[in-house]
Amino acid sequence: MLLVVWTCVLVGALAVPQHSPVHVADQARSESESLEEEARTFLAGVDERGSTECTAATMASWEYASDINERNKKIKAEAQLKYADWQKESWQMVKKWNGRWETLSDPFLKRQFKAMSILGTAALDKKELEKYNSLVTDMSTIYSTAKICDYKNPKKCDLELEPDLTRILRTSRDYGELQHVWKMWRHASGRKVRDHYKLFVRLANKAAKLNGFDNMGDMWLYPYESDTFREDMAELWEQLRPLYQQMHAYVRRKLREQYGEEYVSKRGPIPAHLLGNMWSQSWGEVYSLAIPYQGKTHVDVTPQMVQQNYTPRKMFELSDDFFGSLNLTRMPSEFWTESIIEKPKERDIICHASAWDFCNGKDFRIKQCTDVTMSDLITVHHEMGHVEYFLQYKHLPAVFREGANPGFHEAVGDVLALSVATPKHLAKVGLLDEVHDDDEEDINFLMNMALDKITFLPFGYLMDNWRWDVFSGKTPEKDWNCAWWNLRYNIQGIKPPVQRSEFDFDPGAKYHIPANVPYIRYFVSYVVQFQFHKALCIKAGQYDPQDPSKPLHKCDIYQSTEAGNALGDMLKLGSSVAWPEAMAALTGGKRMDASVIREYFKPLETWLTNDNQKHGEFVGWETDEVLCTSDGPREAATGEPSSATTLVPAGPLYLLLFLLVGLLLSHRS
Ligand code: BJ2
Ligand code: ZN
């Protein structure tokens, strides 16, 4: 500081003539300083007003999502339009800075202008935007209010996804019941949104084009700031596929032992309804069928939670305590008063768990129809991770109040949950009686984790692969459902329990499609969370690559303020730097790296490879069944396994048969 003052005095003392180079440089400096100042004031103004507008729009969305009725729907629609007006207005103001903001020297200011140069769907004209918004609202409402009839009591028709259908998928081992629930859920949800989705895709692409992108799939990738993103994802998946295939072969054998070979064949894809989850997206709920060592400690603690009278509140407090133990920010009092953590009885709400930032630095909430299960305890941590990110970056301007990339946001709570789920930690909180340092218990634990994490990877990868091709037009409307099943078969190795057709719309039976939430973020998260875990475990002194008694999968970062501070430092950056910088701040590296997840599961991978070999299991899948036809019967399905033959649409075959019969009849007469 002193040095600067001295320089100035010196320059003045030399009495430099008016047009000397020194004076010009001086003038240029002061011009650029005043431009920076102007930019700073401008951005602060936009930020303040933007936060207020954002709070109003978020509040209206919350009101609707937590009390679905016509009045709230109308208020939400109006608030969305008002917010879009503001977005357009501020975008136009920002545009006036084009040609000037690029010359700013402060990278923090420049990055704000860059981030604000994309308008988003507000680029649509008012009528189209209104339609686009109402399509998304209607699709998520159809999904969230869908009900089906009971399998054994067909007159009882009030079964909802949460908790009823989720519980049946989790606990029932009745092939027919599972098939009924799987199929009827898709009738009640996906099928009903297919028409909405057609218009939705058109409007989404129109908005993307107005923003200078080819289609909405491309626009979704903008926050990743990478030209090779799709290729990078494909490469990560290739690195992880061998481990998934070992899991697939092992679980298929276990399901075959449970249901019999007529339902689960030796070399075929796995029937999608037997995996404990409506979308076969993670298979943790079939752990009881897949435990490697039955006699050893079981690490699914749902029964203990129920027995100890756990409540949703207690689950949230447990999670809050974990964040607090790391010296991270605890949930503020408004969080506890305003969040909805149990399903209300008297009204319809969007039950799918979510975390909310009301853009005012004070109000942060979670809405979750919490069930007392271990899987929901993990989801509680997942949602709390979002809120922790919100809290850590609340000091930043609104444009930076995002994850370094969307996958980072998804990873925070999951990273903590990796510690929470360890037997050592579960014993610490009284959910397991005793833990033994024993290889077989280790394999039991890793199996439980892999059923959640490894089996999710192909699903996390394929959801947006399907949407990218839909948005780009590579998959035409007439093939939407069969293209979905091609991916489900090729990438996940699963098959529908009953033949599908283009009358169905199975992607629409998964929340993020009707609610229009991009999904590749979860695939990214499942990779980077292991990288974050490793970095934090090193900081916590819980992991040492040279010490076999401290492997990655046994690490529990609970109470490590070193780990918590390092995580907090990354979260505080929000999206103010490109994600490789944020990644480097925590892990020292700048790339997404699948080798860490492979390292974590190494003992299980070795065990699985041996076990599959020992049982002569076929690793991979093949089939000659028709899984999906373009114009198949509207109502396929009985309780029997399907017996169709390839993935080729059967339309032309029917036509041929029809002509042959016609020919035969005319010949006879
Ligand atoms: C249960 C979880 C989402 C999430 C919700 C709904 C959609 C977005 C938010 C955002 C968060 C943000 C979810 C968990 C793992 C796999 C996936 C699934 N719900 N969202 N507002 N998950 O990500 O928390 O809360 O970024 O602000 O959907 O398929 O279940
Ligand atoms: Zn999330």
From TrEMBL:
<feature type="binding site">
    <location>
        <position position="224"/>
    </location>
    <ligand>
        <name>chloride</name>
    </ligand>
</feature>
<feature type="active site" description="Proton donor 2">
    <location>
        <position position="512"/>
    </location>
</feature>
<feature type="signal peptide">
    <location>
        <begin position="1"/>
        <end position="15"/>
    </location>
</feature>
<feature type="binding site">
    <location>
        <position position="382"/>
    </location>
    <ligand>
        <name>Zn(2+) 1</name>
    </ligand>
</feature>
<dbReference type="GO" id="GO:0046872">
    <property type="term" value="F:metal ion binding"/>
</dbReference>
<feature type="binding site">
    <location>
        <position position="410"/>
    </location>
    <ligand>
        <name>Zn(2+) 1</name>
    </ligand>
</feature>
<keyword id="KW-1133">Transmembrane helix</keyword>
<feature type="binding site">
    <location>
        <position position="382"/>
    </location>
    <ligand>
        <name>Zn(2+) 2</name>
    </ligand>
</feature>
<dbReference type="InterPro" id="IPR001548">
    <property type="entry name" value="Peptidase_M2"/>
</dbReference>
<feature type="transmembrane region" description="Helical">
    <location>
        <begin position="647"/>
        <end position="665"/>
    </location>
</feature>
<keyword id="KW-0645">Protease</keyword>
<keyword id="KW-0732">Signal</keyword>
<keyword id="KW-1015">Disulfide bond</keyword>
<feature type="active site" description="Proton acceptor 2">
    <location>
        <position position="383"/>
    </location>
</feature>
<feature type="binding site">
    <location>
        <position position="521"/>
    </location>
    <ligand>
        <name>chloride</name>
    </ligand>
</feature>
<keyword id="KW-0378">Hydrolase</keyword>
<keyword id="KW-0121">Carboxypeptidase</keyword>
<protein>
    <recommendedName>
        <fullName>Angiotensin-converting enzyme</fullName>
        <ecNumber>3.4.-.-</ecNumber>
    </recommendedName>
</protein>
<keyword id="KW-0325">Glycoprotein</keyword>
<keyword id="KW-0862">Zinc</keyword>
<dbReference type="GO" id="GO:0008237">
    <property type="term" value="F:metallopeptidase activity"/>
</dbReference>
<dbReference type="GO" id="GO:0004180">
    <property type="term" value="F:carboxypeptidase activity"/>
</dbReference>
<dbReference type="GO" id="GO:0005886">
    <property type="term" value="C:plasma membrane"/>
</dbReference>
<feature type="binding site">
    <location>
        <position position="410"/>
    </location>
    <ligand>
        <name>Zn(2+) 2</name>
    </ligand>
</feature>
<feature type="disulfide bond">
    <location>
        <begin position="351"/>
        <end position="369"/>
    </location>
</feature>
<keyword id="KW-0472">Membrane</keyword>
<feature type="active site" description="Proton donor 1">
    <location>
        <position position="512"/>
    </location>
</feature>
<feature type="active site" description="Proton acceptor 1">
    <location>
        <position position="383"/>
    </location>
</feature>
<dbReference type="GO" id="GO:0008241">
    <property type="term" value="F:peptidyl-dipeptidase activity"/>
</dbReference>
<feature type="binding site">
    <location>
        <position position="386"/>
    </location>
    <ligand>
        <name>Zn(2+) 2</name>
    </ligand>
</feature>
<keyword id="KW-0812">Transmembrane</keyword>
<feature type="disulfide bond">
    <location>
        <begin position="537"/>
        <end position="555"/>
    </location>
</feature>
<keyword id="KW-0482">Metalloprotease</keyword>
<comment type="similarity">
    <text>Belongs to the peptidase M2 family.</text>
</comment>
<dbReference type="Pfam" id="PF01401">
    <property type="entry name" value="Peptidase_M2"/>
</dbReference>
<feature type="disulfide bond">
    <location>
        <begin position="149"/>
        <end position="157"/>
    </location>
</feature>
<dbReference type="GO" id="GO:0006508">
    <property type="term" value="P:proteolysis"/>
</dbReference>
<keyword id="KW-0479">Metal-binding</keyword>
<feature type="binding site">
    <location>
        <position position="386"/>
    </location>
    <ligand>
        <name>Zn(2+) 1</name>
    </ligand>
</feature>
